[in-house]
Design a protein that fits this description.
Order of helices and strands: EHEEEHEH
Number of strands: 5
Largest sheet: 5 strands, mixed
Helix content: 40-55%
Number of domains: 1
Radius of gyration: 13 Å
CATH class: Alpha Beta
Low-confidence stretches: none
Number of helices: 3
CATH architecture: 2-Layer Sandwich
CATH topology: Ribosomal Protein S5, domain 2
Mean pLDDT: 93
Distance between the termini: 35 Å
Shape: globular
Length: 114
């Protein structure tokens, strides 16, 4: 049975991840990652109004959530993840966003090893 995506909701959770987490970025996304104390994997999505109208922002958020859901096991357990979407992402499709996510996640994991 597939696990349900647990979303970060509280502003304090987002602030914690920003303040204490590690980050990696490319032109399209910034990904923050912070260990949590046994809460499994939790995901947060931050998409500025600069990215586009509500329809565009919601489409990108749905794409990101679906990628996280389908590839749940590729994200290390017991971490909070926050995706910040940049303006250049507004015209990206599912496969392009997927590629950008693996790029920044790979950079984060490599950063931790070094």
């Amino acid at each position: 049975m597939e696990e349900k995506i647990v979303s970060l909701k509280k502003n304090s959770d987002f602030r914690n991840v920003y303040r204490f987490g590690n980050s990696a970025a490319n032109r399209y996304l910034v990904l923050y990652k912070l260990p949590n104390k046994g809460h499994g994997r939790r995901f947060g999505f931050s998409i500025s109004k600069k990215v586009g109208k509500a329809v565009c922002r919601n489409r990108i958020r749905r794409i990101l959530k679906e990628i996280c859901r389908l590839h749940f096991d590729r994200f290390p357990d017991h971490y909070d993840y926050v995706f910040i979407v940049r303006q250049t992402s507004s015209d990206q499709d599912y496969h392009q966003m997927e590629k950008h996510i693996w790029h920044v996640l790979g950079r984060l994991i490599k950063q931790e090893r070094d």
